[in-house]
Amino acid sequence: MDRLAEKLVQGCKVLADDGQGDLIWGHVAARSPSRPGCILMKPAGIGLEEMECDDIITVDLAGERTGGNRPRHLEVFIHTEIMRARPEVQAVVHTHPPHAVAFSALCRPLLPIGHEGSLYCDGLPVFDHTSDLIVSPDLGQAVATCLDGHNALLLRNHGIVTAGRSIEEAVMTAVLLEKACKMQLLVEHAGGARASTDPDEAKIKRERIYGQESLQLAFDYCVRRYNARHTNGAHHGQN
């Protein structure tokens, strides 16, 4: 449990370092491998970059807080209902990255323009039932149904949801989705894509570039980068 808590904290800080922090909003949750009905989660009221192990709360699959002192996010049902529907999912991310939110308003399919777009070559579902918060089990179930077997979706005019077999996979899927949306926005601003990767080749690229081991290594790099930046910042502040 301690190792999972440490990974959860690292995942929150990686997302913040990627620009996916939205003041105190956005959250990450991970299922305990030894207790599938126990979910560790970032609490409400603090930023992603502020997360520490002592801040973590636990919730059950009904969304009820079972441990920790901080308040629970209203959108806990994004996490619980996806995990209920998909036993293989061990971690879920929900953030509001600016390029992904902007891209969702275009109502266009995400193309594999750069390498990162190939990670979503099986399709990127869009949840457009509401742009409001996902504050009930029914809405959580609707998000889970929309996600289906995919690794990510857009919440129209709201944010993103990613799911993974590990915290590392869910977090890096979110990081790469924001990058893919930014890439396409750049192309749209220049007049629209005239070329993108062939769908069959995109699947090959996805397996070659973004396998589970590669995503783990990329996550480890992002943790090192975050630590280096903040260590350097601390040293500079002492001068």
Task: Give an account of the 3D structure.
The chain is an alpha+beta fold and 239 residues long. The protein has a single domain (2-224), classed as L-fuculose-1-phosphate Aldolase. Helices cover 44% and strands 13% of the residues. The chain has seven helices and eight strands. The chain has an eight-stranded mixed sheet with strand order 4-3-2-1-5-8-7-6, with helices on both faces. β1 (27-31) and β2 (39-41) form a beta hairpin. α5 (167-189) crosses α7 (212-237). The protein is globular and about 50 Å long. The protein starts with a helix and ends with a helix.
Task: List descriptors.
8-stranded mixed β-sheet; alpha+beta; single chain; L-fuculose-1-phosphate Aldolase; 44% helix; 239 residues
